[in-house]
Amino acid sequence: xxxxxxxxxxxxxxxxxxxxxxxxxxxxxxxxxxxxxxxxxxxxxxxxxxxxxxxxxxxxxxxxxxxxxxxxxxxxxxxxxxxxxxxxxxxxxxxxxxxxxxxxxxxxxxxxxxxxxxxxxxxxxxxxxxxxxxxxxxxxxxxxxxxxxxxxxxxxxxxxxxxxxxxxxxxxxxxxxxxxxxxxxxxxxxxxxxxxxxxxxxxxxxxxxxxxxxxxxxxxxxxxxxxxxxxxxxxxxxxxxxxxxxxxxxxxxxxxxxxxxxxxxxxxxxxxxxxxxxxxxxxxxxx
Length: 287
Prior knowledge:
Elements: H1 3-7, E1 19-22, E2 26-31, E3 36-41, H2 47-62, E4 72-76, E5 79-83, E6 88-89, H3 90-97, H4 103-122, E7 125-126, E8 135-137, E9 143-145, E10 152-153, H5 175-191, H6 201-209, H7 220-230, H8 237-285
Domain Protein kinase: 14-256
Transmembrane segments: 259-281
GO molecular function: ATP binding; protein serine/threonine kinase activity
């Protein structure tokens, strides 16, 4: 056994083969028997982050939980037991299925995330690291926001810094910073790529400081919402959700004429068949 494996914090009953993910503060093991995951700290240095995450999940649970969060099943030794999102990461799903994901599905994800983040903020939590890498999908493709190990609870310090393309120039321990990151996450969901593409962190921050954000005009109304998130005009996740709901309704209604046309064509064809059958039947009787 290598020294790296020996140094890993592997819970009893699990092995390296059970690891399905790892992050800044911990390892995630799949418990196949219960279809849940166990998240444990890498080492004693990361226990504070896992403890913050435990307190956050307990706060969410006390407030009734939310469909957009992984279900919390309690503490497991020095870690947590959480719901297993069977489709795993949204980022990998976007990359693997980018040509087949419908606009409605992408819009639904954006609204789900807005609603979830609204619940998170209402309970005294700033995520601090919102991006598609920290969002998972269940078996119905429902988004699940996760990874609260670096988050702020009741104004505690953030223990992590979000990637540059999702990073605000203002106070990172704030709802406004999470809204900025939400805008970048919308961009990522709608385009299947991160804002600023492959640009280096220093270049991204220089552009962002000057409010030179990626062009979103091709994204229509959603592009405007993204710009409002980046420019501090959107003040809450709930505000973003309401705007996206209006877009989804317009998108739905724009599809109705073609749907009605299809129904009408089918109806005319059916009536034509009935008419022809009736004429043929009558003629056969009077022969």
